[in-house]
Amino acid sequence: MIAASIPDYRELARKRLPRFLFEYIDGGSYAEVTLRRNIADLENVALRQRVLRDMSRLDLSTELFGQKLALPVALAPIGLAGMNARRGECQAVRAAETAGIPFTLSTVSACSMAEVARAASRPFWFQLYMIRDRGFIRELLQEAVERKCSTLVFTVDMPVPGSRYRDYHSGLAGAPGLRGAMRRAMQGALKPDWAWDVGVMGRPHALGNVAHKLQGKTGIEDFFAWMRQNFDNSIAWKDLDFIRSEWTGPLVIKGLLDPEDAREAAALGADGIVVSNHGGRQLDGVLSTARALPPIAEAVGDRLTVLADGGVRSGLDVLRMLALGAKGVLLGRAWAFALAARGQAGVEHMLRLIEAEMRVAMTLTGVASIAEIDRSILAQR
Ligand SMILES: Cc1cc2nc3c(=O)[nH]c(=O)nc-3n(C[C@H](O)[C@H](O)[C@H](O)COP(=O)(O)O)c2cc1C
User: Fold this and answer.
1) What is the C-alpha to C-alpha distance for residues 257 and 254, in angstroms, rounded to an integer?
2) Which of 50, 304, 358, 370 could covalently link to 366 via disulfide, CB atoms 3.0 to 4.6 Å apart?
3) What is the enclosing helix (H) or strand (E) of 322?
4) Whose Cα sits closest to atom 12 in ligand 1?
5) What residue ranges line ligand 1, CB within 6 angstroms?
6) What is the pLDDT of residues 205-242, one digit of tens each?
């Protein structure tokens, strides 16, 4: 299949990945109400068509946290992305560089910060989860400084993991020991291209940044057990002072859905926030990001940089998020699917599609630069 869109990449990823990995990316929590809302609410935002406005010169570039970007997008942190293609995070960081946008490395990536730094030629962003062991957090932050990460994305919507039914059905969760390992191995054997690329050639299969804390355990259930034990549900706003004192660069708080929380983030001096519900993977039933974003942008948009993610499946969706008040958009599943389907080349192509779709959308809504995009390009305001 020739991929013409992000949904096409989703189909290609479904064909190439073992079931447990595809469902891990594609799924949401509980009944997946929020996952569906993210996509539906965003695509239902109607654009206002304008014509005959000389759109021969478009500028899609922007600046986020002092960094010039070719497009107003960044690759969101995706845990275990390195299992979707051989040394996946290294391929993705190179694709982001080719496109002139930032890549965000997850705390729970397959490739370590050191490995990604070797693959990269420019600074990338690092995403941090709140882990109980503050000494370990300090280590991670010091390493992020050493590796010249340019922005810290601190994710706050995962004090406990949401239950994802699909992971139980696929054998990724709830099937410990040999039984689970056999199920996953059988699913891998049915996908020989993946089995060779990642299963054989993509080793080691560990969590690069966390491996030394797992004391030699490398099973996927060891990883989930570590997450359950180490993610900190006692975290409160005051703990951000600790992060602030360890990290002097731009700080972006990811996972806000409420204007009151956004005001707290602004009061604490965060440089940015990401309006996000973790791609519908945490508290099911919460608002879609397309609906949560406008009041948040209204409340704090003049005090910090508001980014958003969730349900973005085209360049048109990027434009919609910007019109709803975001200054930049994070792509989540879009890049995970493209990476799974075609590695670095897939992510590069997906980003070219986003750019081409944005050009069409900007031309036909009559906006020549990113700064001009606001609610005036929406049909219902
Ligand atoms: C497979 C998968 C793994 C993710 N892992 C992380 C992670 O490690 N850290 C994090 O902050 N967010 C993580 N997220 C959430 C994304 O960063 C982002 O918020 C979400 O994917 C946006 O929604 P979208 O996929 O609909 O674009 C993950 C999302 C997916 C789909």
Assistant:
1) 9
2) 50
3) helix 315-323
4) 77
5) 24-25, 38, 76-79, 106, 108, 127, 155, 254, 276, 278-279, 281, 309-312, 330-334, 336
6) 888 998 888 877 777 778 888 888 888 899 999 989 99
Q: Catalogue the E-assigned strands of the chain.
A: 62-64, 67-69, 73-75, 104-105, 125-129, 152-155, 251-256, 272-275, 305-309, 328-331
* C-alpha span between 53 and 34 (Å, rounded): 38
If one counts every other C-beta atom within 10 angstroms of the C-beta of residue 1, the result is 9
The CA dihedral of 294, 298, 304, 310, to the nearest 10 degrees, is -10
The secondary structure of residue 195, as a DSSP letter, is: I
For 26-118, list the strands marked E by DSSP.
62-64, 67-69, 73-75, 104-105
User: Best mutation site among 293, 314, 333, 337 for ligand 1, i.e. most ligand atoms within 8 A of its Cβ?
Assistant: 333
Q: Indicate the pTM of the whole model.
A: 0.98
What percentage of the chain carries pLDDT values higher than 70? 100
49 C-alpha vs ligand 1 centroid, how far in Å? 32
Q: What is the DSSP letter of 160?
A: S
**Cα 37 → chain centroid:** 17
Cα distance between the two ends of the chain: 38
Q: How far apart are CA 282 and CA 301, in angstroms?
A: 25
CA atoms lying within 13 Å on the CB side of residue 159: 8
Q: Are 69 and 63 in contact (CB under 8 A)?
A: yes
CA–CA dist 346, 3 (Å, integer):
9
201: exposed, middle or buried (Cβ count in 10 Å: 0-12, 13-18, 19+) = exposed
- Return d(Cα 82, Cα 115) in angstroms, integer: 12
* CB-based burial, 208-230: b 16+ in 10 Å, e otherwise: bbbbeeeeeeeebbbbbebbeee
Q: Would you say residue 175 has pLDDT above 80?
A: no
Amino acid found at 77: P
Q: Is the pLDDT of residue 154 over 70?
A: yes
Could you tell me the CA-to-CA distances from 7 to 3, 26, 73, 306 in Å, in that order? 8, 11, 18, 26
- Whether pLDDT at 381 is above 70: no
Which atom of ligand 1 sits closest to the CA of residue 333? 25
Q: Are 298 and 310 in contact (CB under 8 A)?
A: no
